[in-house]
């Protein structure tokens, strides 16, 4: 049965004002595994409901038990895919895989992040960050959310993928469309100037879908909804096969798993989607959140300025305090009890 608190944490409007910490604390105290109904919220249709798992120990149990709480069965997104074909599509992404498929792809990806490749990335990230900050210092002001918090992840992802800098704002458009698919205005808030773009960038931009009669973009959680992203990823993957560079994705394409297999172009395309959207959006929102947390707690800010060795733990705390991703779904593969609450096979937990 819905309560005021479950309705509050379910509604997207709640998060315009911030995380409802008090409501979550009440739910955690009274019922740390609580059922949340999913009534229709325009433009979302109603859903079957899900279990909100609110206690740390229970969350760890879910995350460490993929045979019981599956990422693959219903995938991990907040809302169920519209149809079986869309579910089959999202299941091909590493985020929505269970072992052994997930383990195989993750191992190949981990091997691509060689010490040398990571060191090269660290140097480039530091240099890019210094240049972005120096430009702000020179002007005296900046739009932090876009000019630093958005551009630094885009430049970094361009380095990881070996994407030309001129094409990096394509990634910005793609992530806005995916993350903001419930918000018609946000989904079309980015644009890409083809002037100076590569041939790959121009070909992709020409495939960008138009808004429909209702003013909305097509569902980006389908392959058909992101034809420009997949066209670019396909061209890039094929190019890495023919002319590998020193970027992480070129190294990945050369890796061989224990069965002699390599990353397929289709797997590369889905990794590209995952990095371009999830890897971009999380940093873009996490950086302003971390900055805001420091500004709201000047004592901690000055403590960090005085002792840079605290930076590692400060980043972890900022991610905890202002997490860019609050939840992922898992689907029960069988009837199970969690936190004293019976969960039926097929029900989602988040």
How does the helix and strand content classify structurally? mainly alpha
Span between N and C termini? 17 Å
Q: What average pLDDT do the residues reach?
A: 88
Number of strands: 7
Query: Helical percent range?
Result: 40-55%
Order of helices and strands: HHEEHEHHHHHHHHHHHHHEEEE
What is the overall number of helices? 16
The major β-sheet equals: 3 strands, antiparallel
Report low-confidence residues grouped into runs of 5 or more.
Answer: none
Could you say which overall geometry the principal axes of the C-alpha atoms support?
globular
Task: Assess the beta-strand content as a share of residues.
Answer: 5-15%
As laid out across the biggest beta sheet, the strand order is 3-4-7
Radius of gyration computed on alpha carbons: 21 Å
What can you tell me about this protein's structure?
Helix content is 53%, strand content 7%. The protein has 350 residues and is mainly alpha-helical. The strands form 3 sheets. A 3-stranded antiparallel β-sheet has the order 3-4-7, with no helix packed on it. The model has no long low-confidence stretch (mean pLDDT 88). It is globular and about 55 Å long. It has helices spanning 4-10, 21-30, 56-63, 84-90, 101-112, 115-139, 144-148, 151-161, 168-179, 184-187, 199-206, 227-242, 248-254, 265-296, 298-306, 311-321, and strands spanning 33-38, 47-53, 69-70, 330-332, 336-338, 341-343, 348-349.
